[in-house]
Design brief:
- By secondary structure, the chain is α+β, with helices and mostly antiparallel strands.
- It has two domains: 63 residues; 122 residues, Galactose-binding domain-like (Jelly Rolls).
- Strands 1, 2, 4, 7 and 9 form a five-stranded antiparallel β-sheet that branches. It has a four-stranded antiparallel β-sheet with strand order 3-8-5-6, with no helix packed on it.
- The protein is elongated and about 120 Å long.
């Protein structure tokens, strides 16, 4: 290589490098503007969204919400046949559940045969051997939701460690010897 070729080669390298730095400088000039503009846009959108949410929240009427503790949310079947037995029981183990903050027991019930007369006993028991029951007369053949105040279970004084919830069908509380009762949506309400 002669001197002329070396100078041309060095000039190409220098010109290539200088044109790249010019491009970089131009992009550096616009990048901080884009960065600060993007940040400014995000701050404005967040502020407007928060203001809109606060305004909507203040204008909405306050709804009273009912808090429920679901024990059984699918239908269970009590299939009774009183030839050998005297009663059929569907029982839910409560595992020392604290019900002091709850006010009602709610459940839905129905019988299969409309001509049957079926009465059912609902019984709660605590770890302290307290037991109380409430009777329901003539269970309907269409779904019926019942809500019981826990205060109706008069023989229970300490609700802090509840042991069992039972739905009981007894031979002397039905007209026929056979039948089916469904219980659904068992829950405690505050």
């Amino acid at each position: 290589m002669d001197k002329k070729e070396i100078y041309e080669h060095l000039a190409n390298i220098y010109l290539d490098a200088s044109s790249k730095t010019k491009r970089r400088k131009k992009s550096k000039k616009y990048f901080p503007f884009l960065q600060s503009g993007l940040l400014f846009g995000i701050i404005i959108i967040a502020t407007l969204s928060l203001a809109q949410f606060t305004r909507l929240q203040n204008n909405l009427p306050q709804k009273s919400t009912e808090i429920a503790l679901f024990l059984q949310n699918e239908a269970v079947k009590i299939n009774f046949n009183f030839d050998p037995a005297k009663k059929e029981i569907f029982s839910l183990k409560l595992n020392n559940l604290d019900l002091t903050r709850y006010k009602n027991l709610s459940f839905a019930v129905r019988k299969i045969n409309p001509s049957d007369t079926i009465n059912m006993r609902v019984e709660l028991s605590s770890r302290f051997r307290e037991k109380s029951a409430v009777y329901f007369k003539n269970i309907p053949s269409a779904w019926q939701e019942y809500s019981l105040k826990l205060s109706e279970f008069k023989d229970i004084s300490n609700w802090s460690e509840m042991d069992n919830l039972s739905f009981i069908i007894e031979e002397w509380n039905v007209r026929g010897k056979k039948g089916i009762v469904f219980i659904d949506d068992v829950k405690f309400l505050r």
